[in-house]
Predict the 3D structure of the following.
Amino acid sequence: MKKDLKTKKVAVLAADGFEQSEFEVPITKLKEANAKVDVISLKKGKIKSWNKINWGAEFEVNKSIEEIKTNNYDALVLPGGVMNPDALRMNKKVIQFVDSFMIQGKPVAAICHGPWTLIETGKLVGKKVTSYPSLRSDLINAGAQWVNKEVVVDNNLITSRTPEDLPAFCQKIIEELAETVFVN
């Protein structure tokens, strides 16, 4: 049975240098499930993707981090890419936004290098996660239990390793979001 997310609104948070497939595929799958998706970044305008070995396409930003509130969203997606999470985790408003999702128990989905941003919240202690293998030590040092699986779900937290894991990652996001009910 196909999940219908027509009542759900998802924030996809990215900065220049996000991995293009880890951004495009979840957005496409969420929209196919009828979710409303906002692309959020550090500034309005366009953000540039990284496509495997070089710069990729540019994408329009719907809202800047300065003009959003967690209560307006049901879930958060953090694509990977090396440059993207490195920029996001240095922004205080980004960390407050992500932290708020974790506190409220709303689904947070991070793939590849996306969990780097999660480390800054201090909320990974005791959480089971996965990521791109090079983040293993960073996540363990942040108190997380790192495992090597295509997708890991620990309560509201959904993590995945690489673009090859996108089918399982997207399926879990949609499943978790379909089962979640919030009162804002």
About this structure: The chain is about 30% helix and 25% strand.
